[in-house]
Specification:
This protein is an all-alpha fold. Helices cover about 85% and strands about 0% of the residues. The model is unreliable at about 1-10 and about 40-45 (pLDDT under 50).
Length: about 260
């Protein structure tokens, strides 16, 4: 349907990036625990061998990131030669994502500045909304929630004007997330409630579950533990009914430990 198509074309949303970064962090922690166990059993020689292995793996990961960035730059040069402005804008957006994931947020911002000029010249407002979303993601990843909030709001405004409900729901969720991290719990609740209602209207169970779990965290931050528990239990039942990831709800309930 229309909503599914919009979500597919919208590019990487903040929630998806946050989930991916969380999974990567968990993998790194698990690898670290395995390394500790091997050091305990392997003695001095085993520890040195593990260190060499870790250095080699780190070098390989950096090499892959650099290789991916070079590939994106070659795509950019090709688009420029063809004078394909829309294709160039897309290639630059992809390059900015790679730069941000590498931790070079300043370079990502500069790349997105170039994309903005291209899209404004083309009059492509849908892609401009995606660009503002990308800006929000980059700002969020460096902990600049004020600028992330501003970018997400600009993305939301365009998506609302263009009547793109699936992406409006994503933007509402992102705005709520930034408001929450800035301590503006009232506005976080308002935006998340709107996002939840829209996800439910679109029958997007995964989106609704994600927002509902975020709202439970909001209740915890406000000290409303009984309400948080009720929402987390409801999320857990919904996840089980629809065979969706339920780890966040389980962890939240364990953290609350309310009898």
């Amino acid at each position: 349907g229309k909503g599914g198509k919009e979500k597919g074309e919208g590019g990487r949303e903040g929630g998806e990036r946050r989930k991916k970064k969380g999974e990567e962090k968990k993998e790194r922690e698990e690898e670290g625990e395995k390394g500790k166990e091997k050091k305990k059993g392997g003695g001095k020689g085993g520890g040195e061998e593990e260190k060499r292995k870790e250095r080699g793996e780190g070098k390989e990961r950096r090499g892959k990131k650099e290789e991916e960035e070079e590939k994106k730059k070659r795509e950019e040069e090709k688009r420029e030669k063809l004078d394909d402005k829309k294709g160039l804008a897309k290639s630059l957006r992809n390059l900015a994502i790679v730069q941000a994931e590498r931790g070079d947020h300043a370079a990502a911002d500069k790349t997105l500045d170039r994309v903005k000029v291209l899209l404004e010249g083309l009059g492509d407002r849908a892609s401009l909304a995606d660009l503002y979303n990308d800006r929000g993601v980059v700002a969020e990843e460096r902990g600049d929630f004020a600028n992330a909030l501003d970018s997400y709001r600009q993305s939301l405004a365009i998506r609302q004007q263009l009547d793109m409900p699936a992406l409006v729901a994503e933007s509402l969720n992102n705005v709520g997330y930034c408001a929450y991290h800035m301590g503006d719990f009232d506005n976080a609740g308002v935006y998340w409630q709107q996002a939840l209602a829209l996800f439910q209207k679109l029958d997007n169970q995964n989106g609704a579950l994600h927002v509902s779990q975020s709202m439970a965290l909001l209740e915890i931050a406000r000290g409303h533990f009984a309400a948080a528990r009720e929402r987390l239990e409801s999320s857990l039942r919904s996840a089980e009914d629809h065979q969706l990831p339920e780890e966040a709800a389980r962890l939240g309930l364990e953290a609350l430990a309310i009898p």
